[in-house]
Amino acid sequence: MGNQKRGALNNKKIEMTEERKTQIENIIIDLRSKNEKKVLGALKRIPHDGSPEMIRPMFELVLAGPSSEARILLDKTLNNLKDRGVKESLIELLMDKDFYHVQPEVLNCVWQSGVDLGDRIELLIDISINGTYMTVLEVCTVIENIEVIDTEALSESIKRMDKAVAIKSETQDILVSLRELLLEKLLD
């Protein structure tokens, strides 16, 4: 009888997993809906039922230019992520050229949610060298809040920044500030 009970529990876990998959899929479908009520409903469910798979659809919504009500809910949700599992989803967005115009928002989400990108300093430097003023500003904020950065990666990043700041651009001044921040981190 004990084995039957254990088997029933295992089946229930499988059912819960399928139920959870369906729940996640339904929220993602609603996030991508053209129906404002469905989008708002999905955004209201995310704080309780969210998962890392929902990060991309939320930033797709940011790109699409949501209504003011949806934007308020989006900002509240994206700035309060408590799941460390979102790190890879956020990195994927930062690397995806389709999300170039929302990189500042993605980086703000990284910072607000306490996601540690100390092991991705090279990516942050690439983004800043090729980014807008606001992107570089957000990279500075993220890097300021990183506690541990590999010294070798930091040295390489400073060398890359030396080349970047030599090029005249609209972000040159803030790139110089970022380079100074990297030097401070190296000397700490």
Secondary-structure blueprint of this entry?
Elements: H1 2-31, H2 36-49, H3 55-64, H4 68-78, H5 87-95, H6 103-112, H7 121-130, H8 133-144, H9 151-165, H10 172-187
Helix pairs in contact: 1-2, 2-4, 5-6, 6-8, 7-8, 7-9, 8-10, 9-10
Overall description:
There is one protein chain. By secondary structure, the protein is an all-alpha fold. It has two domains: 105 residues, no CATH class; 73 residues. Helix content is 73%, strand content 0%. The chain contains ten helices and no strands. 31% of the residues are buried. About 5% of the residues have low confidence.
The averaged pLDDT comes out at: 89
Report the helical percentage: over 70%
Shape call: elongated
For the largest beta-sheet, the strand count, sense and barrel status come to: none
Counted by DSSP, the helix tally is 10
The radius of gyration is 20 Å
Q: What is the total domain count?
A: 2
From the helix content, strand content and strand pairing, which structural class follows?
mainly alpha
Oligomeric organization of the protein chains: single chain
In percent terms, what proportion of residues is strand?
A: under 5%
Features:
188 residues; mainly alpha; 2 domains; 10 helices
